[in-house]
Every structure is written in structure tokens, then in C-alpha cells.
Amino acid sequence: MKDKFGRPVKSIRVSVTERCNLNCFYCHREGEWHRHHSEMTPDEIERILKIARELDIRKVKFTGGEPLCRNDIVEIVLKSAPLMDRDVSLTTNGTLLSKYAYELKEVGLDRVNVSLDTLDPEKYRRITRKDMLNDAIDGIYAAVDAGLNPVKLNMVLLRGINEDEIEDMIRFAADTGAILQIIELEAPVEKEQTGFFKKYHVNPKFIEEHLEKIAEQVKYNELHRRRRFVFNFEGKKAEVEIVRPMHNSEFCMYCTRIRLTSDGKLKPCLLRDDNLVDILTPLRSGATEKELKDLFIEAIMRREPYWK
């Protein structure tokens, strides 16, 4: 199904919880600006994904918060995987991944994104307020070993903190066989002029230009037509993507996803919180499949490019 701008909706990001065992100072919790405590059950997630499948949405990424904080995350993936037969993935901070990686793979998880902004223990504590770097690294190795391929490492670029670690992160990704995603810190327009954003935001254009010069091959990620630079790094294959969402009309032009918040609201755009469609309340109130499908279609029709 396409929105009013002709963009097909192919995937859905499902936040299964706002809970997290880390407390990263920049986290926007998948765009959920308001805290709440009502989480969808595995059966409710399954029913909503069945509606999504009827609209030919066949890719799902589970997010949070930290999705592995839910002790029923394996059940959620088990119920969802048969519906989303093109791609089932999960974004995690990795600290609990060594516990779940193999079982998640068995029940249908295809791949993972692991948030890892630094390899320095002191910086890790500064960013996350926790001393769990070794747990995250163990989780990455477990994911690779379990065959959750590809493992992508999400590194949010932070001025004055980790922009000097790019080479170390590329080396780590090459050593583990992971793909490194260097991600620009993002914020809605109304937050761009805050002291926080000005202090920590780095435009990663200079990194992209450097990688373009040394890359042996450039691949294209279907989502946003993002480029992946492939090159030899110290005798090993390295793959790096640069994610530049800020003021990037191409980022929005190729967006094919919709989001579902952990309290059951369809969210047409990550950076907007004023056009959500509540699907969980009607579901719990006995709405028919047609009524739920109409709500889903309404949410898709509310999608519009944030950066134009």
C-alpha cells in the first residue's frame, strides 16, 4: 500500500517496551516522547501484524526501549515470524543478547542491530550510565555465532565523545564480521536549536566523503537508497553505512516504514508525535478486522515527508 506521496509501506517497526536496562543520555526511545506503562501482549502484537500483512507489509523490526527486557520476547518473535516472511529483525543494546541470541534465531529472528557507540569503558559509562560494555560485546559475538546475519552495529556520532573512535569501530566491525552504521544524531525541528543538540551534533558528511575515496565497492541499501561502503581494512573486509537523517529529503523520499508504539499507537513518522493513530484501544474494545484495517490505512495516509 502507498501513502499520498506514492511511497509504498513495506515494513513496520514495533516498539515492544519503553523499559531499558541502560539510560543513554541522548535516547529518544523510538520517538515515544511520553512515558506510559501499558504494553501490548504477544497476542495483540500478532493480531496487529496480521492486519499489516493484509496490507502487504512483510518486514518487522522489534525495538524499544530495550526489547530484550521483555521476558516474553521469544514468544513475540515466534508469533510474528510466520507473518513477516521477508525480514524479521530486532534492535538491541546487546547487553542481554548472549542470553537470547540462539533461541531467537531458532524461532525466526533473521538479524539484529546492536547499539554500540564506543569501545571505551569510560565513555560507555558516560553515555549509558551503566558499566555493561563487556555484556554488549559478548552479545555481539553471540549474535554472529548464532547466525543472526547481518549483525549491524549502530554508532551514534557524538561531538566531543566518540568521533575519534571511527577507525577503532571499523576495525571491530571488520574483526567480528559486522556492518558498521555511523548514525547522525537526530532531532525534530523544534529541538535543533537546543544547547544539547548543538553540543553533541556532528554532520557525518566528512566521513562519507572519505569512505567514498577509499571504497572498493559501493552498495545501495533499499531503504533511503543509503550507500554502503565496502573496502579492505587491515586485511579484512569492512562495510560501513552512513545514516544522515537531518535535513535529508532523500531520507524521507525513500522511507517505506511505519511504526507502532509500545502502547499500541501507529506512528507515521519518527520525528512527529501529533498524528498518531490508536489501534490498541479499539482492538481491546472488540473492533472488527475491517475497523482495525481502516485504522491502519488511516495511519498510512497520514504519512508525509518530514524533510521536504
From TrEMBL:
It comes from the Archaea. It catalyses: GTP + AH2 + S-adenosyl-L-methionine = (8S)-3',8-cyclo-7,8-dihydroguanosine 5'-triphosphate + 5'-deoxyadenosine + L-methionine + A + H(+). Keywords: 4Fe-4S, GTP-binding, Iron, Iron-sulfur, Lyase, Metal-binding, Molybdenum cofactor biosynthesis, Nucleotide-binding, S-adenosyl-L-methionine. Pathway: Cofactor biosynthesis; molybdopterin biosynthesis. CDD domains: Radical_SAM, Twitch_MoaA. Its EC number is 4.1.99.22. GO terms for biological process: Mo-molybdopterin cofactor biosynthetic process. GTP binds at R13, K61, T91, K152, R257, I258, R259. Binds 2 [4Fe-4S] clusters. Binds 1 [4Fe-4S] cluster coordinated with 3 cysteines and an exchangeable S-adenosyl-L-methionine and 1 [4Fe-4S] cluster coordinated with 3 cysteines and the GTP-derived substrate. Residues 4-234 form the Radical SAM core domain. S-adenosyl-L-methionine binds at Y26, G65, S115. [4Fe-4S] cluster 1 binds at C20, C24, C27. [4Fe-4S] cluster 2 binds at C252, C255, C269. Its cofactor is [4Fe-4S] cluster. Gene3D superfamilies: Aldolase class I (3.20.20.70). GO terms for molecular function: 4 iron, 4 sulfur cluster binding; cyclic pyranopterin monophosphate synthase activity; GTP 3',8'-cyclase activity; GTP binding; metal ion binding; S-adenosyl-L-methionine binding. Catalyzes the cyclization of GTP to (8S)-3',8-cyclo-7,8-dihydroguanosine 5'-triphosphate. Belongs to the radical SAM superfamily. MoaA family. This is Probable GTP 3',8-cyclase.
